[in-house]
């Protein structure tokens, strides 16, 4: 395994600046997830680490070696793309071993590596089949196996599960996490799916417009978002936002709504953010509203509450019954809210 270090990394494509003076340190054995909306530059960044896209400026070290002008084949990288990119006329065994054969690896070594990867990915029974005979999940396992046999120091994943249905995504997500726990290799993973990011990552890098918005553990990024963009991007349903003001008595006010906050709350205009799980419907709650919409989710339900013109989502147990138009009382955990600057969106 190797660390990856980017310094002042900038990339321009078609006259547009995609990555802007980015600094990033990926530690040995880490599972780092690059998360962000389409077009934020995360895939471009990943491809530049692999050497498939040239940077305009900056430095990149992999395993302590300067790789700025090193060919992709010499960077010690194993890459898995969104499309499986398998050779249709080759068997699974030949697809997995192709790169090794081109590199002149001894046959015995190739066979041992393929067998080892096939065992880890449960592909032993499929080694003689061709891609057309495989399911989408099996094809993606082969693509992952092709990267594993290289025994690379860093593995790069470019949205490898996005073409799969929800059930297969969940299965392969678990397998990837177990694979990382087993190999302890350095892995950098690109996705726009927050569930993948939260479940796989040791650290998440949230990106927007080619810039890093926040880096932290899944818990840190979710519980203490650095700005309103991060807060709104993570979470399903998304964080509730209310424009208002904090007075000198540490009370947040938004029209007829008021909420007691922690003693250190900054005074002045602010946007209050609260996760749906911290909005609890309670007969003794201090706030009142009307149910606008109920979304059953199986083991829970999302209840949308209209409170003085503010629409808030709340997570409620599936056994409770709510109906549109029903009057309810609810509480917001003032110790679990976030406050953001109404202009720049930065966390206060």
Automatic annotation (TrEMBL):
Recorded GO MF terms: ATP binding
Keyword Nucleotide-binding: yes
Name of the protein described by the UniProt record: ABC transporter ATP-binding protein
Pfam families: ABC_tran, TOBE_2
CDD domains in UniProt: ABC_MalK_N
Record organism: Massilia agrisoli
Family matches, as SUPFAM superfamilies: MOP-like, P-loop containing nucleoside triphosphate hydrolases
Keyword line: ATP-binding, Cell membrane, Membrane, Nucleotide-binding, Transport
Ranges for domain ABC transporter: 4-234
């Amino acid at each position: 395994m190797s660390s990856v270090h980017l310094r002042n990394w900038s990339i321009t494509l078609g006259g547009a600046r995609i990555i802007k003076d980015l600094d990033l340190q990926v530690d040995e054995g880490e599972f780092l997830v690059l998360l962000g909306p389409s077009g934020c530059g995360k895939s471009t960044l990943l491809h530049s680490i692999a050497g498939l896209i040239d940077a305009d400026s900056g430095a990149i070290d992999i395993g302590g070696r300067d790789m700025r002008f090193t060919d992709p084949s010499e960077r010690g990288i194993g890459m898995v793309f969104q499309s499986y990119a398998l050779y249709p006329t080759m068997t699974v065994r030949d697809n997995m071993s192709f790169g090794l054969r081109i590199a002149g690896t001894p046959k015995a070594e190739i066979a041992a590596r393929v067998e080892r990867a096939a065992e880890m990915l449960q592909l032993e029974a499929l080694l003689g089949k061709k891609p057309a005979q495989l399911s989408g999940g099996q094809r993606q396992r082969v693509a992952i196996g092709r990267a594993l046999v290289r025994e690379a120091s860093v593995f790069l994943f470019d949205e490898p599960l996005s073409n799969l249905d929800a059930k297969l995504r969940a299965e392969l997500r678990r397998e990837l996490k177990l694979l990382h726990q087993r190999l302890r290799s350095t892995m950098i993973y690109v996705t726009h799916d927050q569930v993948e990011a939260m479940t796989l990552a040791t650290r998440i890098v949230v990106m927007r417009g080619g810039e890093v918005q926040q880096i932290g553990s899944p818990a840190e990024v979710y519980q203490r978002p650095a700005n309103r963009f991060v807060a709104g991007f993570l979470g399903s349903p998304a964080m509730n936002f209310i424009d208002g003001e904090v007075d000198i008595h540490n009370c947040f006010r938004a029209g007829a709504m008021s909420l007691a906050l922690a003693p250190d709350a900054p005074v002045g205009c602010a946007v209050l953010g609260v996760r749906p799980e911290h909005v609890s419907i309670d007969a003794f709650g201090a706030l009142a509203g009307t149910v606008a919409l109920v979304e059953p989710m199986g083991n829970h339900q999302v209840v949308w509450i209209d409170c003085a013109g503010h629409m808030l989502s709340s997570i409620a147990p599936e056994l409770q019954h709510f109906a549109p138009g029903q009057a309810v009382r609810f509480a917001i955990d003032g110790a679990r809210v976030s406050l953001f600057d109404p202009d720049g969106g930065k966390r206060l």
